[in-house]
## 1
Amino acid sequence: MTVDDTQWPRFQVFKQDRLDVPFENVGSVHAPDAEMALQNARDVFVRRPDCAGLWVVPAEAILEESGRVPTAGGEESQGGGTASTEAFLVFVKQDQSGTHIYRGQVEAPSPTHALILARSSLDDPDRPGIVWWVCPARAVVRSEPDEAESMFGPARGKLYRQPGYYRADSMMRAIKARRRREQDEASE
Amino acid sequence: MIEGDTQDLEDPQAQAFEARIARGEKVEPRDWMPEAYRKQLIRMISQHAHSEIVGMLPEGAWITRAPSLRRKLVLLSKVQDEAGHGEYLYHAAETLGATREEMIEALHSGNAKYASVFNYPTLSWADIGVIGWFVDGAAILNQTMLAKCSYGPYSRAMVRICAEESFHKKQGQEMVILMSGGTPNQRQMVQDAVNRWWWPTLMMFGPHDTDSPNTPQLVRWKIKTRTNDELRQTFIDQMVPEIMVLGLSLPDPDLRLDEVTGHWRHGEIDWDEFWRVVGGNGPCNQDRLAARRKAHDDGSWVRRALSAYAARQVQTG
């Protein structure tokens, strides 16, 4: 390999299939900045219809917690009462085979506090979260609703990307039926 | 025994991990996992990613020569999907600590493996139909199994890939059906493609179970749920009757239906050929790597321009 082989920082990508369902994590892309990350996310994750919006977040801006409940401790919490707070987005994986789905926002002085708050205020007792992600709201770059049609519309017209566009199954059934008829006639 | 699989089974962390797997839980990136589990997954997922990326080359060669606009659109979007699927899989490997730079370097230097089937040439348009039906059909069987894999990010990538790839197989099968019912030239062309791709496709499932020492551990960890030979048998049983009903033959004089079990039995696979191709000495290995390296180097100015733009945006605020 020769020149400039960096693959750039990683951005986590969240996709909303329809306006009435929450954003969910679909994977990540590499990009030099958030604007290109959004463009790459569109190319990588929206080759099919069903996209109403995309968010990208620098991977290092996400704090993850699974299993044990984090406890507020150490220096970070000592000034907790007076420190200024900011908004954090909360994502949670609820099903073993599922992914991280947007749950809501909390106001907290630090990512660790945001995790504790999220788990105490946003958990569903019937389906407790398995893995929690939080990231500062200011780290999220969102696709523009005005540009949704030009970003996500083209995928809707490409019907040849759906298996139902092809006649392979019905042609196969017809050929098999013809072969059976031929065999029946030959044996009569 | 898998390299690195030396952790003490008395270790409570290892025991808890095995219990989680047994309960059917999915492992997430930050969870504790045995080093051998991590290593096996990085190996499998990065090879899988490389296969998607190199897999663009044999079919990409026919985009400019597709016989109609419809076929060109279909082939373009299939090849574009493979690029996206490579991205999904590199992402899954990165969650385990592998970097994109390391993986790309391993591919370009010839140290990484990828599916050996992509080291064969595409000699005629009929190859595009047969690859879609055979090669994608075989890949879908393997990937449907991997969608149930115990590692969360790999399993989620597989679910998305399986959903998108179903059209890849259908478009290929449709082409083979149409050509097998076409002119004598078309029938001859598609038969020739079947003859050349059948054995490389059977080899895609990997060595026999008796020569696949990692399989029992991978099955125990629920990374795989079926063995190479089981998947190969399912593929043969699905494909043989369909190929025969089209009036096409398969290049295996020993192929026969076992009346007792209902399974189709294939003749001996040429494993010398398999290991030769895996070892870098197939018909197209050098061409494939040269094409990858050239694409990477030719894209260098784009990466430099984007980096310069991003740096200036930061400077000027």
Note: The helical segments of chain A are 34-45, 74-78, 111-121, 148-152, 168-187.
## 2
Amino acid sequence: MNEVCDVVVVGCGVIGAAITYYLSAAGMKVIAVDRSDIASGTSSACDGNILAIDKEPGFDSRMALESQKLFETLEKELSFDLEYRHLGSTLAVEDEYQVEQAAEWEKAMRESGLDVRLIGPSDVHSYEPMIAEDVLGLLECASDASLNPIALVRAYVLAARGNGAVIEEFTGVKDILVTADGRVAGVETDLGKILAPFVVLAAGVWTPEIAKRCGICIPILPRKGHIIVSERTFRVGSRKIQEFGYLMAKFGTRDRRGVDSETEQYGIAMVFEPTPHGNFLIGSSREFVGFDTSCNTKVVALMAKRAMRFFPCIKDIRVIRTYAGLRPYTPDHRPIISEVDGTSGLYVASGHEGDGIGLAPITGVLVRDMVLKRPSQIPLEPLSLRRFA
Amino acid sequence: MDDDVVVCRCEEVTVRDVKKAIAEGAFDIAGVKRRTRAGMGICQGRTCEDLIRQILVSELGIEPEAVLPDKVRTPISPVTFEILSGGGAHE
């Protein structure tokens, strides 16, 4: 059975759902396909970050800020409770060396237009009474927020359906159809062909295997990350708190983090996120172990230990679950949002690593503007696929 | 089952909530969980999973065996951060 539309979006996690929404809102007839349920991969095995504080000052922080602006009105726009909380976030600074680093980061961030300030040792514990006594500072970013990522995917999907988009679950893509003169013509699925002049690959860590079928190489690798879920409990932290060393773990710098070699090896950095339901989530870890999403108890143990270093009060709180997801890693930690050279009409929007939730709105808007040939809100060259050529 | 019956006591999810999730596209235990929080609480679905399977079977007209169970994850029963980290004594 053949279908015809304007745009096929491959993958219905948060990125595919956002693209489907913004394109359908602009009047395009969109069909989104997912080989399983919506939000059944990375988008339901993550946390709900909308952060600018952990972005490199400059292009990356600007892109994050543009996305944060779109989030501010999103609950109203989508008429859906996203559990959106705009409380800012903080990075916990551990020692004098990190105080110096944080001061530099603060300066660079402020120059890039972010509302960032360093809360000093005398005020740390009035902001976060439960945090370890020896924490020397909190670097705060006021524009940061969090939400429920699964709710975000559902909200985009329901609103897109309201705009006339069709979401085809349990529909795997077997091939991308390309004409002899190098134009995309649609996709071939398990259930037949869908013909369209535009195809967007938004399948995250699974985008490379789909792109490979038409000979295109996408440099995205699955990077596994674990999360620990606590029982419902008293208020441990008031908002999102990460250790300052998270920046070092994320960007892979090896200088003076003062952690043991295993914590370093598994890229473990404390991330604390309270939920509106009274639980909290603890991250984070980083491993390249293919598509394995089983929980490594050794990694989880190290994460629990790291969390207790920053919040000693949680030692008797119970853990009810752990889970692991695959973050779509690119070599320069920046997503690929780009037309594919040599195959006009074919786009890639994947590779957001741990930033997919926070960057979903801006990604959806950028893809919409690319497809409709509208001027872009931000430069597109830093996001191009050809930067890896 | 009456629509007002609570199937997940930990997260207070009713039959009506589960049916709504199925109408929205949920087809297995994890899909219902993602849309309703059923099974996300302290018992991790031990009570509600069978009930939700029954509702999926009747709403979708499928066999009970066709309903995928949720993933089993560490820990099997709740443990403290201290124990999980390898320190302290198990109760």
Note: The CA atoms of residues 82 and 151 of chain A lie 5 Å apart.
